[in-house]
Amino acid sequence: MQWQPKNSLVLTMAYIGNHGIHQPLPIPFNQPGVATPTHPINGQIYSYGFQAQDANFNTLLTEQVQTTIGAFTGSDGNTALRTPYIGFNPNADFWKAEGVSNYNALQLQATKRMSHGLMVNASYTWSRSIDEGSGLGAGLFYNGNNPLEPSTAYAPSDFNRTHVLTVSYAYLLPTLKNSSKFVKAVANGWGVQGVTVAQSGQPFSVIDFSGSAASIFFSADDFITNPILPLAPGITPKQATMGGTDNSFTSGPLAGVRVPYINPNDFSIPFLAPGQSGVPPCGLTTAGTTACDTQETSYGSNSRNIFRAPFQTRFDLSLIKNFSLAPSVALKFEADAFNLFNHPSFDAPNGNFALNGCFNPFPCFPDPTTILSPGNPNSQNYGVIRQTVGSNRFLQLSMHLSF
Fold this sequence. Notes:
Elements: E1 2-6, E2 9-27, E3 94-115, E4 118-131, H1 135-140, E5 142-144, E6 155-156, E7 163-172, H2 181-187, E8 190-199, E9 203-204, H3 215-218, E10 225-227, H4 237-240, E11 283-284, E12 290-291, E13 307-308, E14 312-326, E15 329-338, E16 345-346, E17 372-373, E18 376-377, E19 388-389, E20 394-402
């Protein structure tokens, strides 16, 4: 809908929608299944990606199978024997045309054509883009929970910006006509123009492919998916957002530690209990002792892109002065300021949490609530914003001769 209240002004309101189907997604066609005594897979009646030991490093009798499927030496449990196609790497995938996306947007625009020396074009978009995989990220890895159920990854797109405001303008100062040549040469020909952009930050997820999530499927040799690391029970995305964006540092026992944008202590590891989802129950080890497999993990319940990077703003401004040297010769001086107020636009933080530093066959998980603590001051910078988007303030002077 458009409305023109006066000759130089047009107001526009529009709705845009887009529904996409059959979009390609990288799906692991050989992902290990969950084997149980009632539903065995290729002779395997239990499911484990790691191996359980007693205090003297004796292994469970039910976990004597050791396969190696990835780059890490050691064991991946029996994952390679629980695949649909024995002999193919569990990390093998193919692109399936089963992705779904939806985009809905309300667009508002005000355009004032040049009159009385002023021109303004302002537009605002309130939108939401949802998909099961976005752009290049979806082409390299599957981002989400179970890739055999792509609908679990249906969430805001990686490029979704809820609010986008753009204002461009140009203003030519009024000219003096009844003055001396010197005064007119100094006072006339001035103008200002600029662009202002304000938009929501980029959505992002916190992932962990080291086995802290989905170890029962890929152990710690996961080179094909980015499993979502779930939040701790009762913690919301807003509560987990600490907001450290300006290289500020903590005080007290954690003095000198950068304040993370996302609190790494607010996440949990989705452990499976012995006997649950095919995990071997407590039993005898090779030495006749008793041990329990408490290290297997499953997918979490959080969706992808539940967090959002900081809001971003940018002001670009130009000051111009026009000189008339002759009837067919003009000179224009221009002073440009990009990111005029030197306001930083922050990128998404480090959302790759590798909590299982030992990988396999025997993992070592930290207490997720103590990642940021005096004894462990977040040396891996989990949840910390490491860079900005765009440049610092940049100034430029130029002269243009037209003839």
